[in-house]
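Quick one:
INPUT:
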């Protein structure tokens, strides 16, 4: 009985230490001065609209790439299961979203087929830093690798 009580107490302490996952919901605007952008071909969204529920995250990105405005809309399940969204040029983007052990950081890993029969990979890491949203992007394809860090202000 003591062993059972000990295990129960230990599991409750572990759960209490994990805390609540952050709610990224809201409209976020890119803070250019505090962000680290890839010089030639930045993928930075000017605005993010995030809607988070207990089991999903909807991400709407508004941006401009080489003079062309764009809007992308993705929905990710927050249970670690694979989900499919529309990728570049109507391709199939396959993604998984996983919380860190402490429940404070969300990592979304995605794969998108490319025109050269290869694939591009992206890893987006979401976390709250004070009152701002920090989003780290790492992408790789046959054209090379890039990384950017966006700091976004809540609107």
């Amino acid at each position: 009985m003591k062993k059972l009580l000990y295990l129960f107490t230990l599991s409750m302490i572990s759960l209490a230490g994990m805390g609540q996952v952050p709610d990224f919901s809201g409209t976020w605007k890119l803070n250019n001065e505090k962000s680290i952008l890839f010089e030639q071909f930045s993928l930075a969204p000017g605005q993010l609209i995030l809607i988070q529920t207990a089991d999903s995250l909807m991400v709407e990105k508004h941006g401009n790439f080489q003079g062309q405005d764009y809007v992308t809309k993705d929905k990710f399940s927050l249970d670690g299961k694979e989900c499919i969204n529309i990728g570049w040029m109507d391709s199939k983007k396959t993604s998984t979203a996983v919380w860190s052990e402490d429940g404070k950081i969300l990592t979304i890993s995605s794969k998108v087929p490319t025109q050269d029969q290869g694939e591009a990979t992206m890893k987006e890491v979401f976390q709250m830093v004070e009152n701002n949203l920090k989003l780290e992007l790492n992408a790789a394809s046959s054209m090379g690798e890039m990384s950017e860090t966006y700091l976004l202000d809540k609107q």
